[in-house]
Amino acid sequence: MKTTVVHLPSGAPISSAAPVARPTRPEPQAVRPAPTPPNRQIQQALAALQKAAEQMQETAQRLFASHREQLIRLSIEIAAKILAKDIQEHNYQIESILQQALEGIGQDRPMTVRLNPQDLQTIQQTAEKTNEAPSALIRWIPDPTVKPAECVIETEEGIIEWIIEEHLKRISEALTAGIRVHDENGNENLLH
Questions:
Q1: Please, what are the domains in the chain?
Q2: CA-CA distance, 114 to 110, in Å (whole number)?
Q3: What is the pLDDT of residues 75-116, one digit of tens each?
Q4: pTM of the full structure
Q5: How far apart are CA 191 and CA 180, in angstroms?
Q6: Cα separation of 125 and 90, whole Å?
């Protein structure tokens, strides 16, 4: 508490004195300074970081696409080797292969089916075991130029070749067709 001294004229009586309280002012609230905009160096650093992040993302996409294509090729090569081994060991169902090859063809028309002699023998043995009469519309021809597990079907509409290498090639093309990457200018390119 503070004491205030008041000078009165010299003969004036003092009847009472009491301290005078100072008027109180409300305490000012803490004012936060407005955020200052980043300086030029910080802005340049942020821009550089943004560009670096974009370049890293682009590089990652390219690497992924490149590796994806290599993985697809490797998978196709592995599948071809497995199929070759299965064919060599005669570990396949020629009946299923024929059924798939004949799916899009009307069975009510005459056709010629050329098969590897071993596969034709397997078809004939299966027909004998199941007492299934061969269709009079299908002419079966043993053809040593047709590889095992493959067939050639000739109809009035054309020729269907069920060739393993062609199927693997189509599968590979279909899987790699969607691999696209962006270059440094943002242009989209097909990765080969």
A1: 50-190 (3.30.2320.30)
A2: 13
A3: 888 888 888 898 888 888 998 888 888 887 877 889 999 999
A4: 0.54
A5: 6
A6: 15
